[in-house]
Write a structure and sequence with these properties.
The chain is α+β, with helices and mostly antiparallel strands. It has helices at about 5-15, 35-45, 90-105, 110-120, 120-130, 145-155, 180-190, 250-260, 290-295, 300-315, 320-325, and strands at about 25, 50-55, 60, 70, 75, 80-85, 105-110, 140, 160-165, 170-175, 195-200, 205-215, 215-225, 240-245, 265-275, 275-285. Strand 12 (about 205-215) and strand 13 (about 215-225) form a beta hairpin. The longest helix is centred in the last third of the chain and has 15 residues, at about 300-315. It binds adenosine-5'-diphosphate and magnesium ion (MG).
């Protein structure tokens, strides 16, 4: 047999070797949620064992020799991979449970550190800015005496005021005048809420773009348009989704943002501004419903295939020392 053909045959044989059957845990508060159900289906369709665990019912024994996780009286063992679907309201406890899985050498789809950093809007904005990613001009202050200066810095009213830990559009306010901006900022500061102040990207016209990233690729994208008269495009606020074609710049910005945050799977939200794409936020538990419907793609399956691939190379983004060192030894 000619050498080339021989090599081609080996290559094809290697490609057709079926991936290992994995035992996958999905951390989710509700097994009936669309995204959770789809991930369960996709994992089972590829022959894996999968179990949905309510993250708030996981409890832990934190010892260096034999870290363990318990669930309703049962000792959880033998998981190969874990898919965190941790809601914003349970970030603190949820990332602690995920960290425990990491200590037990279970491959995390997204790592706990990456989820924590993405949940803080200010921290993520600073990280993205440091790497030159396009962002709306953003300011942050503590003292009410600095409000006027802060408003001037972002270009004056109209401007957007955001709670650092808000989600689904709640906690995002458009202040149309200087006076409105000043009183809303004062009110938030009076309540000791952490906020940031942002240039209003008017030209986005109530729409944003959700890029769904898996690994180093944008696998689907959709445009979300806010309800009439609403500047927030969140589907939870009545926005509607449609398919969109990304520019090469938007595509590469999304991939870079995901990489900077250290997230394998995420939803990168951006606005089309006069000065190119500007990032809104990077979501570490992006919903599958809107994007699967808009793109008609099986994103859940892509996520499971990604886990299969990464599980084989055992590669993590933040290079968890315990995870990489002890993997495979027990
Ligand atoms: P949340 O985490 O609550 O979704 P976002 O920061 O993503 O908060 O803001 C919600 C929505 O509000 C965005 O998707 C976008 O449509 C709109 N929005 C937020 N910031 C701006 C801005 N600076 N300029 C224009 N629109 C904005
Ligand atoms: Mg958002």
């Amino acid at each position: 047999m000619p050498v080339v053909l021989f090599h081609a045959k080996i290559y094809l044989n290697l490609r057709s070797v079926k991936s290992k059957i994995m035992k996958i845990a999905i951390l989710s508060r509700n097994s009936k949620l669309y995204s959770t159900t789809r991930l369960v289906e996709a994992a089972q369709a590829r022959g894996h064992q999968v179990r949905v665990l309510d993250v708030l019912r996981c409890y832990m024994n934190i010892t260096s020799h034999n870290p363990s996780i318990h669930y309703r009286g049962e000792d959880l063992t033998g998981f190969d991979a874990v898919i965190p679907r941790i809601g914003a309201s349970v970030t603190f406890y949820g990332t602690a449970v995920l960290r425990q899985f990491e200590m037990m050498n279970v491959f995390p789809l997204n790592e706990s550190v990456a989820i924590s950093r993405s949940r803080d809007k200010l921290r993520s904005t600073q990280l993205l800015a440091r790497k030159g990613i396009g962002l709306p001009v953003t300011g942050f202050a503590h003292n009410p005496d600095d409000i006027t200066d802060l408003i001037d810095q972002v270009g004056g009213a109209p401007l957007v005021i955001k709670l650092l830990q808000g989600t689904q559009g709640i906690g995002v306010v458009l202040a149309e005048t200087h006076n409105a901006a000043e009183s809303v900022i004062q009110a938030f500061m009076g309540l000791n809420a952490n906020i940031m102040v942002q240039e209003f990207i008017k030209e986005a016209d109530g729409s944003d773009i959700r890029c769904f990233v898996v690994g180093d690729k944008v696998v689907a994208a959709m445009k979300r348009q806010g309800a009439k008269g609403e500047f927030r495009s969140n589907l939870h606020r009545g926005g509607t989704a449609s398919l969109i074609r990304l520019t090469p710049e938007e595509r590469s910005t999304a991939v870079r943002a995901a990489r900077i945050m250290g997230l394998n799977v995420c939803g990168v939200d951006m606005l089309r501004s006069n000065h190119g794409p500007v990032i809104m936020e990077v979501n570490s538990s992006p919903g599958l419903k809107g994007i699967e419907a808009a793109s008609e793609k099986n994103i859940a399956d892509m996520i499971i295939q990604f886990i299969e691939k990464r599980f084989e190379t055992m590669e993590t983004k933040d290079k968890l020392p315990t995870w990489t060192r002890t993997r495979g030894k027990g």
